[in-house]
Amino acid sequence: MKIRNQSVKPGAQAPGASLCVCVAALLLPCAVQAQTIYRVVGADGRVTFSDQMPVTTDNATVLGAGGRALAVTAVALPVELRQVASKYPVTLYTASGCAPCNAGRDLLGNRGIPYSERTVSTSDDSDALQRISGGTALPFLTIGSQQIKGYSDAEWNQFLDAAGYPKTSVLPAAYRQPVATPLVVVQKAAPAAAQPAEAQTPREAVVPQSAPATNPAGIRF
To answer: CB-based contacts of 116: which residues, under 8 Å, 6+ apart?
Structure first.
């Protein structure tokens, strides 16, 4: 399906533009639910709307409901896939130079599994992975609450099948996996401003009191 091409010169309104805009406004909500719509601006300024992914996406905008522009990672997933991914999210833990990690990434990509990737490259990352998985073996995959250590295409596919993920990709052509992020993000604390020394004043002696009947454990703050 292609929506009629439309060239608009600055300061001028193309013939029938009002009608085209109305038709597009009526068709767009239905089209977005069924497929991805691209708004492409050509080198000559011509604006084209199409459901076919352009060769280059440099000048392409993915349109969501109501014509709102979406980032490629925000492209809506098919309903069934979105429900499975929401119920059993997939997270892949990897490290650079890890051949099994690359194989696992390829399996998820070829099967069209939306997933988050967390990288392990520092001692803090390793410590965090140890707490999560009970070891440091990579790749490490989680599907919902299920944890899979190491790569095995048969085992990974078995768990993905059990979760209800499709066997072949149904991802929209414009979908892009989120960028991999470190497992532990270190943030430097801002240096504290020097505080003037306060004069020490004698404190009043604290007289122990018996715990009230409503606090039999005698907890004090």
So the answer is: 89, 90, 91, 92, 178, 181
Q: In Å, how far are 163, 184, 210 from 143, measured between CA atoms? A: 8, 20, 52
Q: Where in the chain is the domain with CATH 3.40.30.10?
A: 79-182
3-state secondary structure of 4: strand
Q: Give alpha helix (H) positions in the chain.
A: 17-34, 79-87, 99-111, 123-133, 153-163
163-220 pLDDT, tens digit each:
999 999 999 988 888 899 999 977 665 666 666 666 555 555 555 555 445 445 544 4
Q: Is the pTM of this model over 0.90?
A: no
Neighbours of 97 (CB within 10 A): 7
Q: Topology of 79-182 in CATH?
A: Glutaredoxin (3.40.30)
Sheet hosting strand 60-63, strand order edge to edge:
2-6, 47-50, 37-41, 60-63, 69-70
DSSP 54: P
Distance CA 55, CA 127 (A): 43
Backbone angles phi, psi at 183, to 5 degrees: -65, -40
